[in-house]
Design brief:
The complex is a heterodimer of chains A (285) and B (233). Chain A has 285 residues and is mostly helical. Chain A contains 14 helices and no strands. Chain B has a domain of 155 residues: P-loop containing nucleotide triphosphate hydrolases (Rossmann fold, 3-Layer(aba) Sandwich). The chains are: A mainly alpha (285), B alpha/beta (233). The interface between A and B is medium-sized, with 22 and 31 residues.
């Protein structure tokens, strides 16, 4: 029988040097304070809805109302459609920008970031001008885009796609081009190398881009406010519903809807994180 | 046989101009040169991965200058193996055969043959992240040889291996080349590797190919593991 290793007293155990401890304490304090800040915001909402004497909102009535059901349905459907459209455009753009150098690449790269850096209201205004004041108006006349559901999706897409492009560009940058070149020598066409080698290795980035696009779409407000308007039962996605409740002076109902958004966002983000973290996605060393 | 005739290649600010090279069929040729001398660029041009400005690449007498990489019949083993991260070793060995539309039975037979030749039968279900450096290079070699290429191009395939694995891989490369009869072009800057593997040694100097001139004293002074030894950068 092997002897048990001698016990080391707490006093003699190795401990990180004092400078390291100070470093990690600093990290924990700085990082933790932000985490606490986020928790405090959500906790304040919960307190206001359930424990504050100033609030007399009927939570069940807000959550079970037809308007709320419509807002949730519209938000979920529009976010999913937007995510699909965003990936559809972001994959080819991200791949092309990652793999090719060409004249004017820096300019195009900067242009792709415009929806990220522009104020959301400006994006909404630009969309409204595009679809109402230019020859593109024929599309609006034909399909009824502005101030209708398509406007919600276009407004969400215009910002979400930029984030998806940025994420996927980084993903493709991390996959060495050598692997595709090897696939070419093995008999693949460019397209086969992309679908058989690059795309399977991009699963993690695709899921991250999808999560980001979805989350951005759920929280999108400014462009929707300007381009899709605030018509009850038509374009009132959850952020617009919050805005309408605040405008009507119903702060309690607005906070209830906000908490509902937090719950939906957390559920989706945690599910995506689990999918990304599990072995479903290959380990990319 | 690999032949280049007045081959000119541009790669960014770097270029190779009017390179002439002839490697007899079935031989193991090692191409050496300093870092940045253009060895990898030349290898890539032969494989069809670099745009050729002028000149010709001939494989067994056939002009393949403007052929797609996959039509040239060249197996390529890159420096780090460049294995496909989502595929098992079995799929690596079967990849080129599936692209070529081989039957399942033929693919299975060929995969087993290659796995036995490279002694990786136990690894067939594993993915790259579970493999050692030597195992990765064996898989990369198997993948490159799976479709019976006439030419094998190796771009510093042993540079990242430890001393023991390096020695094993040298023996394996020599044996595999003799058993398959493939014409090998192996790029390295490791003198020991060249001495042990090459039927023919070439140097690339100032963008031109020159035959190796024996310099025994200098070669003997290279200590293993240092400059020119296994694991040298």
């Amino acid at each position: 029988m092997s002897e048990a290793p001698p016990r080391i007293s707490t006093k003699d155990r190795w401990r990180p040097p004092a400078t390291d401890r100070a470093f990690y304490t600093g990290l924990i304090i700085l990082g933790g304070s932000y985490l606490l800040f986020i928790l405090a915001m959500v906790a304040a909402d919960v307190y206001f809805v359930f424990f504050s004497a100033k609030n007399n909102v009927d939570v069940a009535a807000v959550l079970l109302s037809e308007d709320m059901a419509y807002s949730i349905k519209l938000s979920l459907i529009s976010c999913c459609v937007t995510t699909i459209l965003a990936l559809w455009c972001a994959v080819p753009i991200g791949y092309f920008m990652s793999r090719h150098n060409f004249f004017g690449k820096s300019l195009i790269d900067a242009m792709l970031d415009i929806p990220i850096v522009l104020p959301p209201l400006v994006i909404g205004l630009s969309l409204l001008i595009l679809f109402r004041q230019t020859p593109v108006k024929f599309l609006d006349d034909l399909f009824g885009i502005a101030f209708h559901i398509p406007a919600v999706i276009i407004a969400q897409f215009s910002v979400a796609c930029a984030f998806a492009v940025r994420t996927l560009r980084g993903t493709f940058d991390e996959i060495p081009m050598r692997r595709e070149q090897v696939a070419l020598t093995l008999g693949c066409s460019r397209s086969q190398a992309f679908w058989m080698v690059v795309m399977p290795e991009s699963k993690r980035g695709l899921l991250t881009a999808a999560t980001l696009a979805w989350a951005r779409s759920l929280g999108e407000f400014g462009p929707i406010l300007i381009f899709a308007g605030t018509t009850r039962g038509r374009t009132d996605v959850l952020p617009i519903a919050v805005h309408m409740e605040i405008s009507a002076g119903r702060l309690g109902a607005a906070v209830v809807i906000s908490l509902m958004m937090v719950a939906i966002a957390m559920t989706v983000l945690i599910t995506f994180r689990l999918l990304v973290g599990r072995s479903l996605v290959p380990n990319l060393n | 046989m690999i032949e280049t005739v007045d081959l000119t290649v541009f790669a960014g600010e770097f270029s190779l101009a009017r390179v002439n090279l002839k490697i007899p069929a079935g031989s193991y040729c090692v191409l050496m040169g300093r870092t940045g001398s253009g060895k990898t660029t030349l290898l890539e041009a032969i494989c069809g991965l670099k745009r050729i400005v002028s000149g010709q690449v001939l494989i067994d007498g056939e002009d393949v200058t403007y052929m797609k990489p996959g039509e040239r019949g060249i197996g390529f083993v890159p420096q780090d193996g460049s294995l496909f991260q989502t595929m098992t070793v079995w799929r690596h060995l079967a990849f080129a055969l599936q692209i070529r539309g081989w039957s399942k039975a033929d693919i299975q037979q060929r995969v087993e043959e290659m796995a036995a030749l490279l002694e990786i039968t136990d690894l067939l279900d594993r993915k790259p992240h579970g493999l050692s450096g030597g195992e990765r290079q064996r898989v990369a070699l198997g993948r490159a040889l799976s479709f019976h290429p006439t030419i094998l191009c190796l771009d510093e395939p042993l540079s990242a291996l430890d001393y023991d694995t390096h020695a094993q891989m040298i023996r394996l490369l020599k044996r595999v080349q003799q058993e398959t009869g493939v014409t090998a072009l192996h790029v390295t800057h490791n003198i020991m590797e060249a001495e042990q593997l090459a039927d023919r040694r070439l140097h690339i100097v100032d963008g031109q190919i020159v035959e190796h001139v024996e310099q025994p004293v200098k070669a003997e002074l290279q200590p293993p593991g240092k400059e020119g030894g296994p694991g040298a950068p």
